[in-house]
Design brief:
With 188 residues, the chain is α+β, with helices and mostly antiparallel strands. The protein is built from four helices and ten strands.
């Protein structure tokens, strides 16, 4: 849900999210528009089913850092502060842990899980944004279709179904996860 139709800067956005009434809410700044993230239980369960095995693998192999819902703002981009659902940053690219404000770089892997109010076009635009600003791999997760689109800067989109296995490619070598496991908590 977009808050107001006006062009906000990151400074405006920071002031807005620091208002007392916004303390427990999640927002992104997308092309100058403030958008509230309204995750559902389904959304949260899928994030968990991706985050836990990814974090376990990365920790076991000392590959970097896995996080969820961390604000990212690229230096020089005054109209975007993005909030990926799940992300991975390789050890060799890690910055010191940011304790206030946004991380000033994109992670290597970004995962976005479609919420009911997301459109396919908006999710694909997010993938393009992440990849054009330094991400190497983007997974777009579609709960209603139980599919995942895999985006890289150098290859066409691949769509994986429930019987496929997603992998970390050269971004997280050796990591793989059956797509079925990503949707296990929401299977009926």
């Amino acid at each position: 849900m977009t808050i107001r139709e006006q062009l906000y800067t990151v400074a405006d956005f920071e002031s807005f999210i620091n208002l007392p009434q916004n303390t427990d809410r999640h927002f992104e700044l997308i092309n100058g528009g403030i958008v509230e993230k309204m995750p559902t239980e389904e959304h949260s369960l899928i994030i968990g089913d991706i985050y836990f095995p990814l974090r376990t693998f990365v920790d076991q192999h000392n590959l970097g850092r896995v996080a969820f819902e961390v604000r990212r703002k690229m230096p020089g981009d005054d109209h975007n502060a993005r909030l990926p659902d799940v992300e991975f940053t390789a050890k060799e690219r890690l910055l010191p842990v940011v304790r206030q404000g946004a991380v000033p770089q994109m992670p290597d892997l970004v995962v976005e899980v479609k919420s009911p109010d997301d459109s396919l076009l908006k999710l694909r635009e997010k993938a393009v944004y992440y990849l054009s600003n330094g991400a190497r791999l983007v997974w777009l997760v579609f709960p209603d279709r139980q599919q995942i689109e895999v985006h890289t800067a150098h290859s066409a989109v691949a769509t994986l179904g429930i019987d496929d296995t997603i992998d970390g490619m050269d971004v997280i070598p050796g990591f793989s996860l059956p797509v079925r496991d990503i949707f296990r908590s929401v299977a009926n």
